[in-house]
Write a structure and sequence with these properties.
The structure is a homotetramer. By secondary structure, chain A is mostly beta strands. Chain A folds into 2 domains: 2-76 and 240-260, Immunoglobulin-like (Sandwich), CATH 2.60.40.2250; 92-236, C8orf32 fold (Roll). Helix content of chain A is 15%, strand content 37%. Chain A is built from 4 helices and 14 strands. Chain A has helices at residues 115-121, 129-142, 156-159, 167-180, and strands at 2-13, 17-21, 31-41, 46-50, 56-62, 65-77, 144-145, 164-165, 185-192, 201-208, 211-215, 226-232, 241-243, 250-260. Chain A has a 4-stranded antiparallel β-sheet with strand order 3-6-1-14, with no helix packed on it. Chain A has a 4-stranded antiparallel β-sheet with strand order 4-5-2-13, with no helix packed on it. The longest helix of chain A has 14 residues, at 129-142. The mean pLDDT of chain A is 94. Chains in contact: A-B, A-C, B-D, C-D. The interface between B and D is medium-sized, with 28 and 28 residues. Strand 3 (31-41) of chain A pairs antiparallel with strand 3 (31-41) of chain B.
Chain lengths: 265, 265, 265, 265
């Protein structure tokens, strides 16, 4: 399906402040960017680089005063995400090298502390996709999804002590459990077409049956179109913006996604 | 300055044919893509990857029949290219690792055969930028620039026996001579704003004085805006399209570049 | 100076177990490996790859039974680590791209939780090297260095609540504080020549004044020779061995480092 | 099998001269380095980096006077190279990204000039491994293998006009023909155990049936152990040493390979 998505971020910057942005979706095997717009207002010199995980990142120094970042694009994505019940666990020695970083514990996914819990959660389940599905089911049963509530980023061990969670929290908990079972798992930040209220979204992917599969504990089914903006080990790697120096307040953030019949001319 | 550039390629494809395209300019330290469009007609599944030199490449199988590729973008680039007479030669042992591949001979730049010629050309000239400038001057004096004439790609040794050349030929000869002097040199394919007749363009960059500088034997001065689409060792690395299997004829190619006051909304 | 270093790891493996090893020092700008030995007993098929941070890693499946890994090398290293009091802070926008991952919080270095503490620690100190030195001084004053005590890996926030620490803990705390000040900081695992008792060692590097500098809170001065085996964001990235599946006990670990006059023939 | 191999290069250096060396075999999926020695005499500061193709390269400035480089290693390699008659051609659109650079023409393999010849050579042969084997057969029939004779490096089109060739020439011709058929092909430089007279060796690999296979026109069968030191597009990428500035004469080069029962302690 074709989606039109946009994101507008408005800041009031007290003093010139360095930013790293991760707002440009890559064309890849899952999605094709047909039209794209990326505007900085006021116009500001920016430099793009590719990070460790292949994401396109933009570096700039936001000038003091009102500063606005606006991205928009027409993108073709799959109508829904693949599911594969029964897809087998890939033994560690057969994993492709690039999946290995996603086995390690990371800032918000302390998989080293989840061995016991993960093992007991999936007891009796066939190793692989079904274990991931079971983890998602556990997350859905133990945490109420409360979009928009949760400013400070918390880690999987902290999430696990709560009763409600945002999309990011649920992804962190899912990732931590998968890695504890030696299943590579990574964070995805992006857009989801039917998401209400509209916002940027986060979910995770796990590597089973020889490829990455999408898991999203916030959704009962995987219907709908997903746009991936960035991949990483957890939220620390995939912030859509990281700013340095004294904290800058965001005035406004507008996210919009809609299905379109075809890219506009 | 802001430029609007576009490129449209039309093919008649006899049988489904694999292509690799290199048509997406990257935002980087020299240019910022504010708007971009990349359309395949009929709509065709494509996969993007990054090549050895950091270029964004698109893989696809063009279906039999009429097939059209259309890219367009609004991009901010420098008003003119920097010049630096006197910028010194960088001793090989001080060159950054990523420049080293651009010291080696390559398909169309047989620098191993140009040691004597290059040395005699720059006799008495201070090592570095001035040597490159002298090489450009030699190319301009010995070859008439005849845009549009020259279908088969020929190598620097072949170019050197001719009296006229296209932009690509001149770049190959310049690169071969620079490398023969242990100056890293690389090919750039892209757009040049005031170029007439309008076409895709090729020039080269040489690494002296601690950075890459633009050299373009087709132009008497470096005035005007340049959009880089791809970097490589020579034309073999930076073809805007490479097709495999039986040769496919291109029906039409339209390139357009113009200066605009600001990116359109 | 020339060092001879060796590391022998003996395991009793209950069932065939996948390992990733990081035991091969790279020759680089700081050290030169003149002789090296890397033996697996019993002989086992191993595959080497380069991880995200440039470390050479070896993948293998250790067979059930007694399994031993032995590495040894003659290596030339600097007589002591450079110090640079007064070396300035590098503004984020001027940092080289490869340093940027070392600004982000990571599993054992929750720099996002250290902003206030780090800021108050370095109040009145010139940004850059001197801030790092002040952080090291704080670590030395608040934690007793107790080599060999501390099996479970704990994170900087946990370290900060204790009164004693191993080398790894001290490095994690130092890294977390540096990153909280927007100074890139990374973990190093390796050998230190005069270390007693002999063991593998961990320290950290911070990027100030345009290069990486060594900081080691376990040592009052930076005298002595250092061999770097692996670089990473924290201990999660640079484990000399990571094993998957049910935990395997290590029977014995022998580390030896000594100064030699020249590599043996 | 286990091999012990060594290479000693002696130079008389008129003035300090920058070198890039490619003499360190990597442990990987095909070979395991158990012991290694790498000595520079006189001892000289060297820096190692990884090139575009994953080879470990060493940069140094050889001081004026006598200069010697000596490498030696014990390495485990396969007893013989795999053959796979009938292994199918991989359509370009299914090739892994990292194989794509090996489809392009390069300095000494002008595959763009071999389309007709390659097509006629393999007429009627099943696409894939058998085409490569046919190309090898053609090379063996049309060129006498004359080891040691052939100082200047010549390209595939030049080789094709001769009646005798060194290993490097034969590899270049084989690579050019494979690429002309859209089969990725790459140059390998290394050691071959039973080679007489002993020397460094060159052969090529082609990507068919989903993996790289070894082809060596100098040998009637692929028996014997091979050590790969470097991979690249052709001899320009994989020179065991590249020197810059005025040519330096090599006084002596000694290569030695022998089978051993096990690595020495």
């Amino acid at each position: 399906m074709w989606l039109h998505a946009s994101c507008k971020l408005d800041f009031e910057i007290p003093v010139a402040t360095p930013f790293i942005l991760m707002l440009r979706p890559r064309s890849g095997s899952q999605q094709w960017v047909a039209r794209e717009q990326y505007m900085l207002n006021p116009s500001t010199e920016a430099v793009e680089f590719t990070d460790l995980f292949g994401n396109l990142c933009q570096r700039l120094v936001a000038p003091a005063g009102f500063f606005s970042i606006q991205t928009a694009f027409d993108i073709e994505v799959a109508d829904s995400s693949d599911v594969a019940p029964g897809a087998p666990f890939v033994p560690v020695e057969q994993l492709p090298d690039p999946t290995l970083p996603f086995l390690l514990p990371s800032r918000y996914c302390e998989s080293d502390r989840f061995s016991q819990m993960a093992a007991s959660l999936v007891e009796g389940i066939n190793p692989g996709y079904n274990q991931c599905a079971k983890i998602v089911e556990y997350i859905q049963n133990s945490l109420a999804y409360t979009p928009g509530e949760g400013q400070e980023i918390i880690s999987a061990t902290e999430v696990n002590q709560k009763s409600q969670a945002v999309c990011r929290d649920m992804a962190h908990l899912g990732i931590a459990c998968c890695r504890a079972l030696s299943i590579p798992a990574r964070m995805v930040v992006g857009y989801l077409e039917p998401l209400r209220p509209m916002d940027l979204h986060a979910w995770f992917e796990a590597y089973v049956g020889g490829r990455w599969y999408t898991f999203d504990p916030t959704q009962q089914t995987l219907a709908g179109g997903r746009v991936a903006i960035a991949y990483g080990r957890d939220a620390a790697d995939v912030a859509v913006y990281t700013q340095f120096g004294d904290p800058v307040e965001i005035l406004n953030m507008e996210v919009h996604v809609e299905q379109i019949s075809a890219p506009t001319d």
